[in-house]
Design goal:
Helices cover 27% and strands 31% of the residues.
Length: 173
């Protein structure tokens, strides 16, 4: 403080001029500090993956032939948990968008991202359901241990071949 007062007295500046100069220096310093912080942050997104991309193929368990038109759903556990109403039967499946398998039985569920401002959210488990007329409903779970991370940073699960069991049709007697 003594040095600042001595410098001010020697410069012949009045108090208002000194305060104005310090404000300019403080503004310049603040702008440079903000620029350095922004440059150091790069382009980190507040959106994080809450569900991985899931790819695989659905086959008939008996014949091992590809099944076309199988509805593949990611069951939304958060929506089911947040709902006050108890879901019945296939209602939980209706909450999530479905994809259908192609003629070769292949399917691909896109990854999902969500905005997370405080902390980093991630996924711990996902439930996938496979539904096709004439076959038993099949549900399975995947965890991060089943996933790999793509070069883009997207979590991916290679589900492989999913075998659906044909329903046994009873003989009329």
């Amino acid at each position: 403080m003594h040095i600042l007062i001595s410098t001010w007295k020697r410069s012949g500046l009045r108090a208002g001029q000194m305060a104005s100069g310090n404000l300019n220096r403080l503004s310049w310093f603040s702008c440079m500090l903000a620029a350095c912080m922004v440059a150091g942050c790069k382009s980190a997104s507040p959106a994080h993956y809450v569900a991985p991309r899931v790819e695989g193929r659905v086959l008939d368990a008996d014949t091992r032939r590809p099944l076309s038109g199988v509805q593949v759903h990611r069951v939304d556990a958060y929506a089911a948990a947040a709902s006050r109403e108890v879901l019945k039967g296939g209602q939980s499946i209706e909450n999530a968008a479905a994809v259908r398998t192609r003629s070769d039985g292949a399917f691909g569920l896109a990854s999902e991202r969500d905005l997370e401002l405080f902390g980093q959210s991630s996924w711990s488990s996902i439930t996938i359901t496979f539904d096709h007329a004439g076959y038993a409903l099949f549900t399975t779970n995947y965890t991060p241990a089943n996933a790999t991370i793509s070069p883009r940073g997207e979590p991916e699960v290679q589900a492989g071949d999913i075998l659906l069991e044909p329903l046994v049709q009873s003989q009329g007697r």
